[in-house]
Amino acid sequence: MNPEDITQTRAGHVSLRSLSVDVGPVHARAAALTQIDLDVAPGEFLCVLGPSGCGKSTLLGTIAGHVAPKDGQLELDGRRIDRPHPERGLVFQQHTLFPWKRVVENVAFGLKMQGVEAAARRREAIALLELVGLGGYESHYPAQLSGGMQQRVEIARVLINRPRVLLMDEPFGALDAQTRRNMQALLLDVLAKLQTTVIFVTHDIDEAIFLGDRIVILSRQPARIVDEIEIPLARPRSDETTLDPLFIDIKRHCLDVLREAA
């Protein structure tokens, strides 16, 4: 299967300039993000770390178009972001699959909403299921799958919309350690084929270093970027990567920055 049959080559450049976001009820607004300047290059895998409750999810929600900024500019490929759009796919920690639909119907749902005819959307959904390692499971229901398999379906359902950027909010946080590592490896394998831009929120330093090309660290609220760290580890990555002295040095640095940020 050719990945170009699934995802057309696109840019996926995310640009944030002086972005500030307030959250909460109208009578009690509070600053969540302040003066965020950030560029995410097309095809880059950016991980976001920060203290619990600092605004990492708010940042993703704003890029997704679900949270309106107070000030600043927010663009994808030079176009202002002002509302949700399938070109910005969002994956949460808990899947949002329809329990009454079979796996192939869940994955194909976005194409159905676009009016794509049944045979074409089923064909594309099956191709994506093959890509995420779930070939042969198209007739199952979500409840018949493990947590890791459900997240694979969720990722496939987002990718079928051909997003320019994939926004992931601790998508593997509810999985056990072994399944989590398997999912990390799968995600890297899939994205190596599709070259989709990724912004990945996590509280796990090891996960951020293992997955990312770059890490940004946020301070406590009102959150600002306090550090940006390049991850010059070779790809493909494996369990041995986590034993690399460079991996350990980066982890030590992240711990120091997070300690100060909190």
Can you describe what's shown?
The chain folds into two domains: 3-87 and 164-261, 3-Layer(aba) Sandwich (Rossmann fold), CATH 3.40.50; 101-161, no CATH class. Helices cover 34% and strands 23% of the residues. The protein has helices at residues 56-64, 103-113, 118-131, 147-159, 177-194, 205-211, 245-261, and strands at 14-23, 30-40, 45-49, 71-76, 79-80, 88-91, 165-169, 197-201, 214-218, 225-230. Strands 6-7-8-3-9-10 form a six-stranded mixed beta sheet, with helices on both faces. Strands 2-1-4-5 form a four-stranded antiparallel beta sheet, covered by helices on one side. Helix 2 (103-113) packs across helix 3 and helix 2 (103-113) packs parallel to helix 4 (147-159). The radius of gyration is 18 Å and the shape is globular.
In short:
The chain is of the alpha/beta class and about 260 residues long.
Radius of gyration from CA coordinates: 18 Å
CATH fold call of the largest domain: Rossmann fold
Per CATH, the class of the largest domain reads Alpha Beta
Task: Outline the biggest β-sheet.
Answer: 6 strands, mixed
Strand content: 15-25%
Average pLDDT, all residues? 92
What would CATH call the architecture of the largest domain? 3-Layer(aba) Sandwich
Which homologous superfamily in CATH is the superfamily of the largest domain? P-loop containing nucleotide triphosphate hydrolases
Structural class: alpha/beta
Oligomeric state, counting identical vs distinct chains? single chain
Helix content class:
25-40%
Distance between the termini: 46 Å
Number of domains: 2
